Amino acid sequence: MASSVPSEGSADDFPGLLLSLLRNPSTTPASSPTHIDIKVTQLPRQSTQPPEITVGFKGGKELKIEVGKRQMKIGDVVEEIARVGRVIEREESLKG
């Protein structure tokens, strides 16, 4: 991932910024085992449900991140998704 990932952002900016980082043309192609399926459900502003992100990777693997509970910033989320993507890619290459 790019090193210029913003580390701050308001709650209102979070979904848009994260999606723009993940949909960057430099992300992996759909044929890759680390391809990310992005679906967005935005909670109402007055919701008491803590924010979370579920990322689906090709092959059915999912990553659930409790963003609100862990007080994560955008850069933290992108880093975690990239880390898991690298692990999945390594597992696939070892199966090979």
From TrEMBL:
Biased segments, Polar residues type: 24-34
Keywords assigned: Mitochondrion, Ribonucleoprotein, Ribosomal protein
Major localization listed first in the record, in broad terms: mitochondrion
InterPro entries (UniProt xref): Ribosomal_mL53
Gene Ontology terms: cellular component: mitochondrion; ribonucleoprotein complex; ribosome
Location of region: Disordered: 24-55
Protein localization: Mitochondrion
Family of this protein: Belongs to the mitochondrion-specific ribosomal protein mL53 family.
This protein's name: Large ribosomal subunit protein mL53
Higher taxonomy: Eukaryota, Fungi, Dikarya, Ascomycota, Pezizomycotina
